[in-house]
Amino acid sequence: MKESAEQKKNRATALFKILIKEYPSEQTALHYGNPFQLLVAVILSAQCTDARVNLVTPQLFARFSTPKDFASADVKELEDLIHSTGFYHNKAKNIIGCSKALIENHNSKVPETMEELFLLPGVGRKTANVVLGQAFGKIEGIVVDTHVIRLSNRLGFTKELDAVKIEKDLMPLIPKKHWYHFSHALIFHGRKICPARKPKCAECKISSHCPSSTV
User: Which end of the chain is more exposed for a tag (fewer CB within 10 A), N or C?
Assistant: First the structure.
């Protein structure tokens, strides 16, 4: 029998109550000292683990720490510093472009609205949602990364693979005030229990609410 919208919402509420006990923190795993460093770290995290980014950023931020530093950075030096995060050519270009845009349009400050963040080079909805939620406590959407894409499909909350469409499907399931925590709980659960290759269904606390569970 097809699940109704109300049933899906009730199931999402039930599993979220379990997940927030398992993952009570809303803090990102990325290490940063200010909103700008967070922005750079999230740009670097595209197609890369947070753990890898955290290995790179100490040396990176010791060399470059402000938008002015990054805007005038030697591209080759920056690429060498971020090389291990992958896609380093494009990431270096975006970080430099983003830094220049912050200087020119925002007095070197990270803007606090989705619309303004979205106009910065290298910033999509995922990056903007992380920065808004983590740095400014503002919730405008749900962070959809590879873990959330995978889990939201396995949990039967969406059939979409596009991040923007998935975000739109998830939003009605959880009250807006919990969107940021919900996405982070899914991300941490994806890393710990529900990876892409071998989900640990026998260890999963939400398996009874998951249509993909093998238990």
Answer: N
Q: Which long-range contacts (CB under 8 A, 24 or more apart) does 132-141 make?
A: 133/26, 133/179, 133/180, 134/27, 134/28, 134/38, 134/180, 135/34, 135/35, 135/38, 135/39, 135/110, 136/35, 136/112, 138/112, 139/176, 139/177, 139/179, 139/180, 140/114, 141/114, 141/167, 141/171, 141/179
Query: Looking at residue 77, what DSSP letter applies?
Result: H
Catalytic residue numbers read 126, 145
Range 198-212 average pLDDT: 96
User: Cα separation of 9 and 207, whole Å?
Assistant: 16
pLDDT tens per residue across span 129-141: 999 999 999 999 9
- pLDDT over 90 at 26, yes or no: no
Confidence of residue 11 (pLDDT cuts 50, 70, 90): very high
